[in-house]
Write a structure and sequence with these properties.
- The complex is a heterodimer of chains A (328) and B (860).
- By secondary structure, chain A is an alpha/beta fold.
- Chain A is 37% helix and 19% strand.
- In chain A, strands 1, 2, 3, 4, 5, 6, 7, 8, 9 and 10 form a 10-stranded mixed beta sheet that branches.
- Chain B is mostly beta strands and 860 residues long.
- Chain B has 3 domains: 77 residues, Carboxypeptidase-like, regulatory domain (Immunoglobulin-like, Sandwich); 128 residues, Ferric Hydroxamate Uptake Protein, Chain A, domain 1 (Beta Complex), CATH 2.170.130.10; 631 residues, Beta Barrel (Maltoporin, Chain A), CATH 2.40.170.
- Chain B is built from 6 helices and 54 strands.
- Chain B has a 22-stranded antiparallel beta barrel.
- Classes of the chains: A alpha/beta (328), B mainly beta (860).
- The interface between A and B is large, with 45 and 48 residues.
């Protein structure tokens, strides 16, 4: 009997656990759903996308909600591949055409991808000085079945490549630039975000990887402690000359990359941060937020490691027109 | 209390359970195929999972992040993954096959594939081997790919065969198309003379065996050479090379490439070769068969966008050798009367051969051997990525000018004072094709091809003062009439205009997992128009000869027995449809088995070297010969039994109806031969190729080919040299014989190559990164017939050649190495050919003696 009483007690506790868990899941789900209202009566807008853009987006949110406190804009790690579950997508690569035609975009800024290494590695010491050519980069980072083994260059320092394992914008862009797929990138896979990749890298005194500028550079314009940015052959002439060794200071990166014709910059992957809403089902509050970003967002780019967009690619008026129809 | 403790424990367990990290994933190999049975283990624990039939796994990982899982499977490189957060989606893990890292990539099917994936027997010769082997042309390829045969008595008379098929053995007739396609960067090179040129800036040579008509524009009934050259680079690079060797060998090569503007890059390559002769002409005291070659290639690459690439290329190669002399290799007793035997003839003329041993490398030739051989052209290639594939347009204009001077009686006698057929060939071609991967299961190529060719031939055959004795058929004293044949000859003006158009398609459909169905079709149109006009000139004017009418008639009859005027026009057109079906099954990542049945046609042929005469009239029914009708079957398997080792085998059987063959005519006016159809031939065989890369320092290859080629039916074959003049029991002279069941010429039953290279790791040497290497290769072929109709005498003994190279090389800096070819100094014949008129002597094309040298290269 005693045993059965205990069993009943256990059952009751199980029920409690299940009920509490369900309540948490449901409330969380409701909270997370776009276009909803929070208990304070604010409209809730959910943004998701590339995690290295979150700091910038949070800055925009801070500034915007000072002007419009009637909305609550939250940034949420993506839990679903269904874009309809989020009000705003902040992506760092171009959507496929079928998705693209259904969304309205604000093209805010750019980022650039550079190879990096743990500062205390001999790899960083040597290649932080000498830089990497395209051949070096392909040899170090990719399983290249087309590679001519006889023509491989000597890599003068030990290294261990780290890479994001899950499909993500930066690895896709990085590998595509050199004619590969993300799966072809060598090394230890990191199941996690860029911050995790950074953490893993810094623990390895031979670690090398590739990072976008918002991950590399701190707000003071210097690389994250312990990280060395490796210069690359930017003019594509097969060697890295002194004028290409500017990558350790973000203000120099800004100066060189922003002023260059995108076609002239080799071995640096430069792509755009886009914010977008569904053209049909966009919430007016989300549209208004993006309208503000479209008009004011660029002033915070450099602070968070992003670069100004190529003026030819920015179509501010297009979104302004869209916002005039879909905004509040 | 106990109850509370238990409750607490259960709650703790529940939270622990819910906090445990479930790691799910799919494991594939580098080809995207599921890896079954891979082990996924959490490092530092005993927690593991094994992938299921779909390559999927589920693992309960630790609660604490991060942790590392290791995924491993036999034959694949283990992969570590550090898990930093709870996973929302299954991990996609691709394990790399280390074996793949050294697989060779080919473009034979118009897309990049590893050679082991392609269900076609392909041999690949790399640019590095080409660079390290000294002077290099197709002749050298046959020593590495034993299924390839090259017979070249001079650039014009060059035939490239694969598995014994492609060109008729012997002398080239411009009225036939080669059966082996020769493509350089997608441009069809119509003339086999290209095979004698040194390669310039070659990146890779792919030799495809068997009919490839559904992949290539021009007919490729027995195989194709698909040559890829180095392209202009937007990264500056240059290479200078100079070589010195015995026999005064000097070679210089230069290649410079780099950007000209942001979107245009250029490449310029040059090659110049000189070598002294290797055969002494005792008459002149000069050494003949030297080398005097110049070649250049210029390319401009325009890349207006990432998706469009436009390549303009132009090249010219110029050869001015004192060369192509053949040495009398033997004399046979023909069936002609004693008066007409070669030994009697030269004895009567008080002549002696300079040597009885061809390998003394001495000749006594009174007509200079020198030849101008110019080949070149321009091409425009446009590649545009469109949708899932690439649209390619290749436009080319090419020319070949051949200006020879030969001593075709192979002696110091003035029998044939001149025997030369200068030719001017021009062609333009256009190929448009679309190739790509249209879905995960369907890829292919579809194309259109057109070529327009014109050959103008300005031939001269002229007898000298000793011709009377070679032509003498009886003891009539009139044969000795002074000046009867001196300066007597024929001038020939002939031309062939040929056009060919084709549409072709080849697809690869993965019907079931690993099972590929690959159909191909081709529709071909060929049209040829021939104008042949041969006019006899010179010699004794029998009309003004002071003698009786009977004597005049007799003398004219003597002359007519040597040369007559002949003129004819002919034309031919044919269309045909051929197809191919390959079924390939990728049993697993180590085994790819395939079987192919294909049909193919080699275009209609036309005779432009003169027709034999029957009762004094040209045999015009021989003006046009039928196209070859090819049925081909092959089954092969490509395997990688262990990492770093590939072993491939192919069995093939080819039946050809109306096989186009050369017929050696004893008539001098028929320029040493005409072409005709043999009713049916069959070639079957087995090929085995193996490559073993023991490690990054040691690699070997071996290839073997068993080839059995026979005339199944050939009832009207020419007589072999020793049967010339055969008269049957009824006293009737016989010109033909039945060689059904006899072997085809030019095919060794057994041929094989073996080679290897030892290379050090990168070392610091003379202030640069260098690798020292030693490479060797050997080639063997068994005895083979060198006569279209099997002969007792014109057979070439088996031989083995060894080549070696050693030195150090650097990708950016100085390379220096020594090389030797035929290092055992083996005496061997490449080919044996009867002399014109079938007097009984025959000449040999001698293989080069031992050559060696040193090469210095600087590259960046």
């Amino acid at each position: 009997m005693r045993k059965s009483t205990e069993s009943i007690g256990i059952m009751k506790n199980w029920k409690k656990i299940v009920i509490v868990s369900l309540a948490l899941v449901i409330s969380g789900g409701v909270y997370a759903q776009g276009g909803k209202t929070n208990p304070q009566g604010q409209k809730v807008i959910v943004v998701t996308g590339a995690r290295f853009s979150y700091k910038l987006i949070e800055k925009w949110i801070d500034e915007y909600t000072k002007l419009d406190p009637s909305v609550q804009i939250v940034v949420e790690a993506r839990g679903s591949n269904d874009p309809a579950k989020y009000d705003i997508l902040a992506e760092v690569y171009e959507h496929p055409a079928d998705i693209k035609e259904k969304r309205a975009y604000v093209t805010v800024g750019r980022y650039a991808v550079f190879p990096v290494a743990t500062s205390n590695s001999s790899f960083a010491r040597i290649y932080g000085e000498e830089g990497l050519t395209k051949q070096h980069i392909v040899q170090i980072f990719f399983h290249d079945i087309f590679a001519d083994q006889e023509k491989q260059k000597e890599i003068k320092a030990p290294y261990t490549v780290y890479t994001r394992l899950q499909k993500a914008g930066v690895p896709v862009i990085f590998s595509k630039y050199y004619g590969f797929e993300q799966k072809d990138i060598k090394g230890i896979g990191i199941a996690g975000a860029d911050t995790h990749l950074l953490k893993a890298l810094l623990r390895d005194s031979t670690g090398v990887t590739y990072f976008p500028t918002p991950v590399i550079f701190q707000q003071n314009g210097t690389p994250v402690d312990g990280l060395t940015v490796i210069p690359v052959d930017i003019n594509g002439n097969g060697k890295v000359s002194d004028d290409e060794k500017f990558v350790s200071q973000f203000n120099k990166v800004i100066e060189k990359i922003e002023s260059a014709d995108p076609g002239q910059v080799k071995n640096v992957q430069i792509d755009y941060l886009h914010l977008s809403v569904d053209k049909e089902n966009a919430s007016p509050e989300a549209v208004d937020f993006l309208k503000w970003v479209n008009e004011n967002g660029q002033k915070y780019l450099h602070e968070f490691g992003f670069l100004l967009p190529d003026p030819k690619r920015v179509e501010k008026e297009k979104f302004t027109e869209f916002a005039s129809k879909k905004g509040r | 209390m106990i109850r509370h403790l238990l409750t607490f424990s259960i709650i703790l367990f529940a939270f622990t359970a819910s906090a445990q990290t479930v790691v799910q994933g799919i494991v594939t190999d580098n080809k995207g195929e599921s890896v079954v049975g891979a082990t996924v283990i959490v490092k530092g624990t005993n927690t593991y999972a094994v992938t299921d039939i779909n390559g999927a796994f589920t693992l309960n990982g630790p609660t604490q992040f991060p942790f590392t899982i290791r995924i491993s499977s036999t034959g694949l490189k283990a992969q570590d993954v550090q898990v930093f957060e709870a996973l929302e989606e299954p991990l996609e893990i691709s394990l790399q096959d280390e074996n793949v890292l050294r697989e060779v990539v080919v473009t034979a099917r118009r897309r990049n594939e590893t050679v082991q994936q392609v269900p076609i027997p392909i041999a690949v010769v790399s640019g590095e081997l080409i660079e390290d082997a000294g002077a290099f042309n197709v002749n050298r390829v046959k020593e590495i790919v034993p299924s390839v045969q090259l017979y070249s008595s001079n650039p014009r008379n060059t035939g490239i065969n694969i598995r014994g098929l492609g060109s008729p053995f012997g002398l080239t007739n411009d009225g036939l198309d080669p059966g082996v396609g020769f493509y350089v960067d997608g441009v069809y090179y119509a003339r086999p003379a290209v095979a004698t040129l040194d390669f310039i800036d070659v990146e890779r040579i792919e030799v495809l065996r068997g009919p490839q008509g559904t992949l290539f524009g021009k007919n490729t009934t027995s195989g194709a050479f698909n040559i890829t050259t180095r392209k202009p680079s937007f990264t500056p690079e240059y290479s200078f090379e100079t070589s010195f060797g015995n026999y005064g060998f000097v070679q210089a090569k230069t290649s410079i490439s780099g950007p000209l503007t942001k979107k245009i890059a250029g490449r310029f390559s040059f090659s110049g070769t000189q070598r002294d002769g290797v055969i002494e002409n005792v008459r002149t005291g000069k050494f003949t068969n030297d080398m005097n070659n110049l070649g250049f290639r210029g390319q401009l690459l325009f890349k207006p966008s990432d998706k469009v690439s436009i390549l303009l290329a132009g090249e010219n190669s110029r050869q001015r050798p004192d060369g192509y002399a053949q040495v009398v290799a033997g004399v046979v007793q023909t069936q002609r009367p004693a008066l007409r035997q070669f030994s009697t003839i030269i004895s009567d003329l008080n002549y002696q051969l300079p040597s009885q041993n061809a390998f003394d490398r001495k000749i006594d030739h009174d007509t200079p051997w020198n030849s101008g051989n110019d080949l070149g052209g321009v091409s425009l290639n446009i590649d545009a990525e469109l949708g899932p594939g690439t649209l390619t347009s290749t436009t080319a204009w090419r020319y070949w000018n051949w200006d020879p001077s030969n001593d075709r009686d192979f002696t110091g006698l003035q029998a044939l004072a001149k025997s030369q057929n200068p030719a001017e060939h021009k062609n333009w071609s256009q190929e448009i094709r679309y190739a790509g991967k249209f879905s995960s299961k369907l890829s292919g190529v579809v194309g259109l091809f057109y070529i327009d060719q014109e050959v103008q031939i300005h031939g001269t055959e002229e007898s000298g003062r000793d011709q009377w004795r070679f032509s003498q058929t009886n003891t009539n004293a009139l044969w000795r009439t002074p000046g009867l044949f001196e300066g007597f000859g024929v001038r020939t003006e002939s031309s062939i205009r040929s056009t060919s158009a084709a549409v072709f398609a080849n697809a690869d459909w993965e019907a079931l997992k690993g099972l590929h169905i690959q159909p191909g079709v081709r529709f071909n149109l060929d049209k040829k128009d021939v104008v042949y006009d041969r006019v006899a000139y010179g010699g004794l004017d029998t009309a003004t000869f002071e003698g009786t009418k009977a004597q005049k008639t007799t003398l004219q009859g003597f002359k007519n027995g040597v040369y007559t005027s002949q003129a004819y026009n002919s034309s031919a057109d044919e269309d045909n449809f051929t197809y191919l079906l390959t079924v390939a099954y990728h049993v697993n990542k180590r085994v790819n088995a395939y079987a192919t049945y294909s049909t193919s046609f080699k275009p209609v042929g036309v005779n432009v070297a003169g027709l034999p005469t029957i009762n004094g009239q040209p045999a015009t029914d021989l003006a046009v010969i039928k196209p070859e009708d090819v049925q081909h079957f092959e089954a092969g398997v490509k395997t990688s039994p262990i990492d770093r080792f590939t072993l491939n085998a192919t069995f093939f059987n080819t039946d050809i109806n109306n096989y186009q063959t050369n017929v050696q005519s004893p008539e001098l006016g028929v320029n040493r031969g005409y072409i005709a159809n043999a009713e049916k031939v069959n070639v079957r065989g087995l090929e085995v190729d193996a490559n073993f890369r023991v490690n990054s320092n040691l690699s070997f290859y071996a290839s073997g080919a068993y080839t059995d080629g026979k005339y199944v039916t050939f009832t009207n074959a020419p007589l072999p040299l020793e049967e010339t003049g055969y008269v049957d029991n009824d006293g009737v002279q016989v010109a033909f014989k039945d060689v059904s069941g006899e072997r085809l010429p030019g095919i060794s039953k057994f041929a094989g190559s073996v080679g290897g290279e030892v290379v050090t790791n990168t070392l610091r040497f003379i202030g640069q990164e260098s690798k020292f290497f030693f490479g060797f290769d050997g080639f063997y072929r068994s005895e083979f017939s060198s006569s279209p109709s099997p002969s007792q005498f014109l057979n070439i003994d088996a031989y083995t050649l060894f080549n070696a190279r050693a030195g150090f090389r650097s990708t950016a800096g100085i390379s220096l190495f020594v090389w030797g070819r035929n290092i055992a100094d083996k005496d061997y014949y490449e080919q044996l050919l009867p002399a014109g008129g079938n007097a009984g002597h025959y000449a040999g094309v001698l293989g080069d003696p031992r050559t060696y040298g040193i090469t210095l290269r600087y590259s960046y």
